[in-house]
Specification:
- This protein is mainly beta and about 200 residues long.
- The model has no long low-confidence stretch (mean pLDDT about 90).
């Protein structure tokens, strides 16, 4: 018969380690219940919430972030089609500069671009633009984003003629090199963020 040691707060455990029985604690994050036994599902440190009578495993490694509904993300436009803009997620704002842990494809449907009617998506976004957006759905692929708020939208853009970074003048973008004037769904934070 296997002797099970008693675990205490802060002990290091590995996936499959026995943590206790369901009569002692409820299973929290990183813990599953199998036939009344509480088993670790990830490597980490044992944490016990006495108030909730819950045991959980706090990861010891920094896992790559997953975009959650409400998160602000930075993304780069890779395609503009009539119903939606397709972007490649770069990072989650406020997270470390770690890679995102899921498919990096996301979409911004025409109805989620801005308040009001959008006649032509190519006047709102161009391939290569850097966009600040909010996650509104992550349940299916691709992740769905919105740029409706004033601080969301294009934060960095290049001239479609000569690829020079565009400068904002009111609600228009002007190329300092060739003089080309373009429009976008601009964020209030245009060229104010470190990309």
């Amino acid at each position: 018969m296997e002797v099970k040691k008693t675990l205490k707060e802060g002990d290091l455990v590995l996936p499959g380690d026995h943590l206790g029985v369901i009569e002692e604690y409820l299973p929290g994050e990183g813990v599953k219940e199998e036939n009344g036994e509480l088993i670790a599902t990830r490597a980490g440190r044992v944490r016990i919430d006495q108030e909730k009578m819950e045991i959980y495993v706090e990861p010891v490694t920094d896992t790559p972030p997953l975009p959650k509904v409400g998160d602000i993300v930075l993304a780069q436009v890779i395609d503009v089609k009539p119903p939606a803009v397709i972007v490649n997620l770069l990072r989650i704002e406020g997270e470390s500069r770690r890679e995102i842990a899921t498919s990096k494809m996301a979409g911004i449907h025409v109805s989620s671009i801005k308040n009001g009617f959008v006649e032509d998506l190519s006047s709102e976004f161009k391939i290569g633009d850097i966009v600040r957006a909010r996650v509104i759905s992550n349940e299916k692929s691709p992740i769905q984003l919105t740029t409706i708020d004033p601080d969301l939208g294009v934060v960095y853009a290049f001239c479609s003629r000569c690829r020079t970074p565009l400068i904002r003048r009111g609600d228009k973008l002007i190329c300092p090199k060739c003089g080309n004037i373009e429009t976008r769904k601009l964020s209030r934070l245009y060229r104010k963020l470190v990309i």
